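<instruction>
Derive structure tokens from the sequence

<record> Sequence and structure tokens follow
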Amino acid sequence: PSPKVAQRYRAELLSQAPSDHPSSAVLRGCETGPGTPLLMYISRHVPTADGKRFIALGRVFSGSVQKGAKLRMMGPGYENGKKHDFFVNSASAVVRFVGEECLEEEEGEQASVSAGSL
């Protein structure tokens, strides 16, 4: 199914937020546009050749990730209201993989698979 159809019934599996939380509504709707919060699942962190940065590979579920955007990242051990497994960083680049090509973009929108340098 398309991401918009799939997210309607997968939203509760993708997020730990209560179903009445605003982020749950935008996740179910696969929304984008001004003011829509970014919800992205990072599936892998790959170190760069110099070992100083990581490329975060993931899927955008709502909103859009933009170059220079401040990102709040919650790891698998994150618990709401606690600082454990919680990180803040900015995206220094946004890229999209098309076949074997890696294309740099200004933003990665919902329903896309994007990567960014952190």
User: Anything to note?
Assistant: The chain has a mean pLDDT of 78.
